[in-house]
Structures are given as C-alpha cells and as structure tokens.
Amino acid sequence: MNVRGKLFGAMAVLVLFVTVFYFGTTQGYLESRFEHYSKDKTSGIFETYYKDHGNSWEGIERMKISNGMGQGSPDQREISLLSTDGDILFFKGVGDPQSLIQHGKQKLIKINEIPVGTIFVDRWESTEAHELKIYVLDSMLTEGFIVPALTGVIALLLGLWLIRRLTLPLKRLIPAIEKMAHGNLHIQIPVSTKDEYGKVTEALNHMAKQLMRAEEVRKHLTADVAHELRTPLSIIQCQMENIQVGGRDVPPEILLPMQDEVIRLSKLVDDLHQLTLAEAGKLPLDRKPADLVLLLNRIIDMLKPEAEDRKIEMICSYQASTMIVFLDPNRITQVLYNLLTNALRYTPHGGNITIRLTNSFHEGSRFAVVSVADTGAGIAAEQLPYLFDRFYRVEEARSRHTGGMGLGLAIAKEFVEAHQGCITVASEVGQGTSFTVYLPFSSDSKPVHDLS
Ligand code: ATP
Ligand code: MG
C-alpha cells in the first residue's frame, strides 16, 4: 500500500472513531440529562407537598401525580415514599411496594438539609417524558445519523484532497531519486517549498553534486595514475628492449635512468598510499612532544647543499630557540620537506627562501605557525584554489623532469589536517609564494580550517 493509501486509511479510521464517539457520548449525555431533570422534577412534587402541608406528610397517600407534561394519559410510573422511620407513606402502581423499594431507583428528600423521607421509582421520567426521550434518542439514531455521516464523508473527501496535495512533492521526488539510483547524477530537482520536502530536495541535490564530484575525482585519479605510470614504464620498457637487442653487458649510464624511473614509481605508489590513508581518516599518527626548531633545522641541513649550488639563500627566523609541539615528527617532517623542496624547485637562481616559526592563539588554542616564503615566480590567483588537489601542477607543460607528480601539497594538507591544523597559501605572480602551516600545540584542540 502506498503512502496515500495508508494516510487515507488512517484518516477514515479517525473519522469513523470521531463519529461513533461523538454519537455515543451525545446519546449518553442526553439520556443522563433527561434522567437528572425528571429526578429533580419528581422529588420536587414531594418537596412542595411537604412544605405546603406545614412540613408534614399529612394526607400524602391521597396525592395525585399527573403525567409529566401535564395532560394526556396518566403517569404509569411506580412511585413509593418511605418516611425516615421506614413506613410506606405513599404508593402508586401495581404490584408489591416492597419489590419497588428493593429494586427501584431512590432519592433522599431533604428539606433545609434535614432528611424527611425517601422516594423510590421504577424510572424517573413520567410516561410522557419517557416517550419523548425514546422519540428524541430514536430520531437521533435514524435521521440524526445523517448529519455526522455526511460530515464524515465531507471530511474524508477533504482529507483525500489534502493527502493528494501533501504527497504531491513526494511523488515528484521519486522519479528523480530513481534516476539518481541508476547513475544519472546530473539531475537537479527544483526546490518549490520551504518545508521538510524542500529540505529533503535540497539535501538530495547536494548529495547528487557531491556524488558527481566524487565520481569525477575518481575518474581523474584513475586517469592521472595511469598517466603518471605510463611514461616511466615506457622508458623502462624501451631501455630493456634496447638491452635485449644489443645483447651485451648493461653499462651504468643505461641502468641509472631505469633505476631513477623505478624510484619515481615507488615514490608515486608510496605517496598515493599515504594520501589514500589520510583521505580515509586512517592515517596512523604517532604523536609525541617534538621540537619544531630541531625538525626544521634537520630538513634545512639536508637541502642546504642544493640551495648553495643554486645560490639560493635560506633565511631562518624563529621566535624561540625551541618550540615543543605534540605531533608526529615523521609526518610533519614530510610536510615541511614537501614545502621546502617546492620552494627550492620553483625559486630561480639567486632567490631566497625565508622560514619563519612563530605561535598564535585561536579560540583558546595555541598554534605553532611555520611559514615558508620564497621569491619564486608566484602562482596566479585562479590556480590557488586547486593547489592542494592531487596531481595538480601549475606548469602548463607538466614536464615530468622539471616538476614532480603534483602530490606533495595534497599530502601536506592531509597530514596537517590529521593534526587538527591547517595549511594556507598566499602568492603574487612575479613576487613569490608563501605557505603557512598552523599546528595546534596539544592534541585536544578543535580542527581549524583557516587562521590567516
Ligand atoms: P611532488 O610534490 O608530488 O613531487 P609537485 O611539487 O609538482 O610534485 P605539489 O608539491 O603538490 O606537486 O605542488 C603542486 C604545484 O604547485 C606544483 O606543480 C607547482 O606548479 C605549484 N607550486 C607549489 N609550490 C610552489 C612554489 N613555492 N612556487 C610556485 N609554484 C609552486
Ligand atoms: Mg612538491
């Protein structure tokens, strides 16, 4: 059964319940009102008699009780009055007054709060009032039923119209969801309402966009990996074919480029593995207190020979002589190494690289701030948003031997974020580029996205 059917079923049950309940309570209420009225009226006759006769039942046995409505047929009720001593003072009816006293309805008569007798009746209504009651209740059961039945039918029709209206957006959503399920992610469903349906539609549109982006990333990743593998593999293949054709000993100048390519391939596989782990949030981190000054100096010492060769000056400016931060030294060394090798690679002869180490506060947490600024060619503003994407390289030529694979910054970003830190870039074409890494001093700080 579809939602419309279920809603209609629920509504029909509700309408039926309300009709029956209303009908039942109205009948019961009317009946009790009749009884209450007649009870008061009957006891009123006796009370009036008692007061009119000087607070005495003197001659009550001769009292005539007319029908409730005053005229017509005589009242056929059985009525008896008992004194406070239990004597029968009045009896009207056929049969045994004792049986009426035992089985009939009773009411204590009080005058000025003092009991003066008890009346017993087989029913409270007079014959005519009883007939009127039966007539009214019967008419309610027959003709009176038409009104609630009609109201119920109208309520159901109105409900049907409302259900159709309320479920219409859902009906519109289903074909779009089915298309998405079959892989058509280019669908954007128009958001026509601001209610929950509107929110669901917005969430679906957002989900479709995300899935499309994930699908594109996946396709690009496969294409990029294939592209990166193709060149070194074809170089190796070509060299090996030459060796086979030559049929002589392999000289080192042939073997060395092959080894270079194998090293590049191993690095690519390793980088991709690290990146995938970090993106999936499964990067194992061995965080411990480590001195950032020491880490930076070690990397700088490693890169110094290359910098000196290319006449690039490396300037260090540290706020303190030690800065102990709770981090994974291997991962952060990799981050800083990637930034510094980039700076070296993309800075021309005679340029300089400035490495600064400071600290800053953000939302109650203290951060170590490492910035690497170079005087290289700089990066155009429109390229900056993609810089941390995997395999993204700015150079149009994407020459494999002058540049890298385009994974260094993606890895740096993932590793820094795994430490609840963030990395930012600022660049000006012709002036240089500056990367800044923010690392929280402790591991319990909230993740940050941009502190610049
Ligand atoms: P890999 O690091 O994987 O060996 P890569 O250095 O090309 O390769 P990333 O470190 O991710 O890759 O850098 C991406 C791109 O950003 C680089 O190809 C380069 O075009 C640009 N880039 C990075 N750092 C700088 C910089 N300091 N100055 C100018 N351009 C830079
Ligand atoms: Mg790099």
UniProtKB/TrEMBL annotation:
The keyword Phosphoprotein applies. Residues 224-443 form the Histidine kinase domain. One of its GO terms (molecular function) is phosphorelay sensor kinase activity. Coiled coil: none annotated. Its main location: membrane. It comes from the Bacteria. PANTHER family: HYBRID SIGNAL TRANSDUCTION HISTIDINE KINASE C, TWO-COMPONENT HISTIDINE KINASE. It catalyses: ATP + protein L-histidine = ADP + protein N-phospho-L-histidine. It is found in: Cell membrane. Residues 164-216 form the HAMP domain. This is histidine kinase.
